[in-house]
Structure formats: structure tokens, C-alpha cells
Amino acid sequence: xxxxxxxxxxGGVGKSMIATQFAYFCAIRRKLRVLVFDLDHxxxxxxxxxxxxxxxxxxxxxxxxLRGETLTMNEDQKNLVIVGDExxxxxxxxxxxxxxxxNQMIYNNLYNAFESFRSYFDLVIIDTNPNPDxxxxxxxxxxxxxxxxxxxxxxxxxxxxxxxxxxxxxxxxNSEFEYLGLLVNLLENKAYQKQNFSTLVEKYNxxxxxxxxxxxxxxxxxxxxxxxxxxxxxxxxxxRQSTAQRAWAMLQPVFSLIAEKMSLPDLSKTKTNEGxx
Length: 277
Fold this sequence. Notes:
With 277 residues, the protein is an alpha/beta fold. The protein has one domain: Rossmann fold (3-Layer(aba) Sandwich). It has eleven helices and eight strands. Strands 3-4-2-5-1-6-7-8 form an eight-stranded parallel beta sheet, with helices on both faces.
């Protein structure tokens, strides 16, 4: 089982869109067994994924998992969402004994949850909250990979130093942790964004997601089809309009690059070959 954390301490950078659409990409296009763990109390990723029947809601929500409750599994497991809920806003309320360490408790319960569903899924995608509390930290400490969508505005770029600290901590805590990079997202064709993009590449070159084969820094432009897909709860490629197809043309190579860096299999090819025998 591989695990990917979608993280950034800044809100509004498109984390939920990336988490949702990458989940569709892996589950539908690559035929992987996917679990989406929504650790954001706003639950935007959960709400979008559950509008259709591509994913089912787990029997427990994120708050219950962090309190130590168990996810029910079966051998014919479908793609699941552990729903983000409002109890995540009040983590301290999860402690029944005042002497307990809330951070250690959450880490332990998250670790136990990971172990319990490890054999049932090929991929776990963890969408995190914008403020870096123990939810984001524990997820990074326990996961194989992390990626950070970022917009090309000064507020997002200013927050990178804090993100670097979180990445360094995760590397110290988890020897298997690999940071895939900053993913330039929702880029607009405006002069100040182009300048910020250049600044980002120059100042944080080693942190940015990079396609070595093509020799480029991949980026995802802003497109109204992304929000429409989120609102409808469907993969963006499902729309036939040219706007949506242009949106998918931006997403598909980025998602393929992420899957390649994570060494995620493409089981659709295996199943196609089996069907031809």
C-alpha cells in the first residue's frame, strides 16, 4: 500500500481538487483500490467524492478514527472515503483522560488505522487541513509521499518556509518519507503570477515537482471545469466540453508523473491483457 499526503498550510490552493481528481484517476483509469482519508474538518473532498457512486463512505469518519475506532473492511472492498467531520476542529475534546498526550494518542490511532487497512488498498490519499496541527504532521510521519499544491501568489510563497520545516520533521521521523514537491496549481495568465512563478522556480528549485524526462516544471492552469467537476462529483474528463478536455489535458500528465514517481501500478493494462488471452 502506498500513501500520499496532500498538504499545504495555506488554504485555497486547490488541495481538495487535486485529492479528488487524483483519486478518480487512480481508481477509474488505473483500476487501483483507493482509500481517501479526509483529515480536513471542512470535508470538501469527502462531499465531492460521495456525490456519485465511484466511492462509498466508510463506516467511521475521520474523527472516530483519531479517537481509536475501527474501520470495517471486507475482501471485496470498494473504493472508500473516510469522511472529514467537524469533530476534527476540537481535537482536545477527544481526550478522556486529562493526563493523556493528545498528539501521541492521535498518532497512535492513525498508525493503528493505517496498519488495519494496509492489505485492502493499493493507495491511500490523505487530504489535510490548512493549519499544520497534529493531523497533518502525523499523516506525514506515517506516509510514503507528500505533495503540496501551491498558487503563484505572494501569500502562498511566503508560507513555504513553514512547509519546509514540516517536510524536514517528516524526514527525520519517517525514513521512508519522500517529498514529491510543490505542484504549481490554478496558475493564471497574469503578469504577477508569471513573475511569481519565475521567483518560485528560482528560489525553491529543489522543492518543485519536476519532470526530468521532459525537462519542465509541470503546472496546472486555472479552469472553470475544475470547480464544475468538484460541484458535480465527477472526474473532470467526464465532461465533453472543450473547456473540460483542456483541463484534463493539463491534469493527466501531472497525475501520470506523480503515479510514476510513486511507482503506482496501472492495473487497467493488466486487466486488458488478461481479457485478451
